[in-house]
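Internal tracking record. Fields below are filled automatically when a chain is submitted to the structure queue. Please do not edit lines marked as system-generated. If the sequence contains nonstandard residues, flag them in the REMARKS field before resubmitting.
Queue: standard
Priority: normal
Entity type: single polypeptide chain
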Amino acid sequence: TFAKREGLYISVNAEDASRSDMDFLVQFATEAKKAGANRVRYCDTV
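SYSTEM-GENERATED OUTPUT FOLLOWS
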Protein backbone atom coordinates (compact mmCIF):
# COMPACT_ATOMS: atom_id res chain seq x y z
CA THR A 1 0.00 0.00 0.00
CA PHE A 2 1.01 3.63 -0.34
CA ALA A 3 1.30 4.06 3.42
CA LYS A 4 3.63 1.05 3.76
CA ARG A 5 5.79 2.24 0.87
CA GLU A 6 6.13 5.55 2.67
CA GLY A 7 7.22 3.75 5.84
CA LEU A 8 4.14 4.69 7.85
CA TYR A 9 2.73 2.70 10.77
CA ILE A 10 -0.74 1.43 9.91
CA SER A 11 -3.34 0.88 12.60
CA VAL A 12 -6.94 -0.10 11.87
CA ASN A 13 -9.76 0.10 14.36
CA ALA A 14 -12.82 -2.12 14.79
CA GLU A 15 -15.11 0.14 16.81
CA ASP A 16 -17.93 -1.61 18.71
CA ALA A 17 -16.27 -4.92 17.85
CA SER A 18 -17.72 -6.84 20.77
CA ARG A 19 -21.13 -6.73 19.10
CA SER A 20 -19.85 -7.93 15.73
CA ASP A 21 -19.99 -11.38 14.24
CA MET A 22 -16.78 -13.27 15.11
CA ASP A 23 -16.33 -14.61 11.57
CA PHE A 24 -16.56 -11.06 10.24
CA LEU A 25 -13.96 -9.86 12.76
CA VAL A 26 -11.56 -12.61 11.74
CA GLN A 27 -12.04 -11.71 8.08
CA PHE A 28 -11.58 -8.01 8.90
CA ALA A 29 -8.31 -8.66 10.74
CA THR A 30 -7.03 -11.00 8.04
CA GLU A 31 -7.70 -8.49 5.27
CA ALA A 32 -6.17 -5.66 7.30
CA LYS A 33 -3.00 -7.69 7.84
CA LYS A 34 -2.82 -8.62 4.14
CA ALA A 35 -3.16 -4.92 3.31
CA GLY A 36 -0.18 -4.14 5.53
CA ALA A 37 -1.67 -3.19 8.90
CA ASN A 38 0.78 -3.20 11.79
CA ARG A 39 -1.99 -3.19 14.37
CA VAL A 40 -5.64 -4.19 14.46
CA ARG A 41 -7.53 -2.83 17.46
CA TYR A 42 -10.78 -4.21 18.79
CA CYS A 43 -12.64 -1.88 21.09
CA ASP A 44 -16.06 -1.05 22.39
CA THR A 45 -17.62 2.25 23.37
CA VAL A 46 -20.18 0.80 25.77
